[in-house]
Amino acid sequence: MKNNPNAPAVFNPDDFLIVPAKTFEELQIGEIFRAPSRTLTNAHSAAFQTVSCDNHPVHYDEVWAKKHGHKAPVIHGLQVLAFTAPGATMFPHVIGEVFIAFTELSCKFLKEVNAGDTLYAALEIISLTPQGNTGIVETAATIHNQNGDLVLSGTHKYLLKTKSNA
C-alpha cells in the first residue's frame, strides 16, 4: 500500500473529525441537524420497558390498549423523546470541543406512536445567546412520523464555550 503524500507525518486522533467543528460564534439560527429515520418495533418497546421499568399495560397489552382507546400498544413517551438526543444527529460533531452541558429540555407529546411507525427527528437552532465566556444554544426539537404528523415538539438548551473560553 502506498503512502498518501497529503497525509500528515504523524497521526493525531484530535484531527480525525467527521465534520469540521464550529465555534459558538459560527453557529447560525436556522441550522438543522437531522437524525436518521427509525422504524420502531415491539422489540424496541420491550427493551425500553426493561430499562425504564415502566410496566404500564398501555405499552405492551394490546387488549388493554384497545379497550382504552388506542389502536395498539403505545411506545413509551420517553423512548420517543430519546430520538431527539443531540448525539442522534450531527450536532455534537459540529460543535466539537466547545460543548459544556445539555442544560434543559421541554416537550409535548402530540400524537401516539406505535410499533411500525417510522420517526424523523430534527433539531433546529432557534436562538443563540452569548453570555461572556459561554453561550446558550436553543434548538427546536421535532419528531414527525411516516404520515407527516408532528408527534413531538419541544426545545433543548445547551451550554457551549465561546471563543474567549475555548
Question: How does this model look, in words?
Answer:
This protein has helices spanning 42-52, 62-67, 77-82, 91-95; strands at 32-34, 38-39, 99-109, 118-131, 134-145, 150-161. With 166 residues, it is α+β, with helices and mostly antiparallel strands. The chain has a domain at 22-40 and 78-165: Roll (Thiol Ester Dehydrase, Chain A). Strands 1, 2, 3, 4, 5 and 6 form a six-stranded antiparallel β-sheet that branches. A hairpin with a 4-residue loop joins strand 5 (134-145) and strand 6 (150-161).
Features:
single chain; 166 residues; Thiol Ester Dehydrase, Chain A; six-stranded antiparallel β-sheet; 6 strands; 17% helix
Question: Layout of helices and strands, plus pairs?
Answer:
Elements (H helix, E strand, L loop, with lengths): L31 E3 L3 E2 L2 H11 L9 H6 L9 H6 L8 H5 L3 E11 L8 E14 L2 E12 L4 E12 L5
Judging by the overall fold, what is the CATH architecture of the domain at 22-40 and 78-165? Roll
Q: How much of the sequence is in beta strands?
A: 25-35%
Measure the end-to-end span.
39 Å
Number of helices: 4
Domain MaoC-like: 29-131
InterPro entries: HotDog_dom_sf, MaoC-like_dom, MCH/BMMD
Organism: Mucilaginibacter pocheonensis
Pfam family, one: MaoC_dehydratas
